[in-house]
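pinned: reference chain
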Amino acid sequence: MKIVDHLSQTRPIFSFEFFPPKDEEGRERLYYTVARLKDYRPAYVSVTYGAGGSTRRLTVELVKQIQRETGIDAMAHLTCVGSTRDELAQVLDDLAAGGIENVLPLRGDPPRGEAEFRPTEGGFAHAAELVAFIRERFGDRFCLAAAAYP
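pinned: its structure tokens
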């Protein structure tokens, strides 16, 4: 279910956000935690995207597995950092093929050690460009969330 559909309900909703674990033990703890939290009936869960896109593959795997195994709707964070349009398109294709309907497109923070964000050649400078790309390529296939800072 798309998050927008959860938000249109009259009952209060809540969600959980998870960071991709660093090792297999952490991954097992994450699945254990998600399974336990399922009893609280969160509307959805989200999984962040590591700095510089470092957990891109793991984020995609986690949201697909969480949604498939628990039935909880999952949202993948997706950043512009370190990725070209083609790489982001592949991630989105993988999410769509895995039944994921919710994405949080973000510009992302500068990679560690860099003071300011610099777009990857062939990528995007702003989350708004990523949103436009997703809409152009996928129409309304994905429910897109947004985050902003002043």
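why pinned: Residues 3-144 form a domain with the TIM Barrel fold (CATH 3.20.20.220). The chain has a mean pLDDT of 92.
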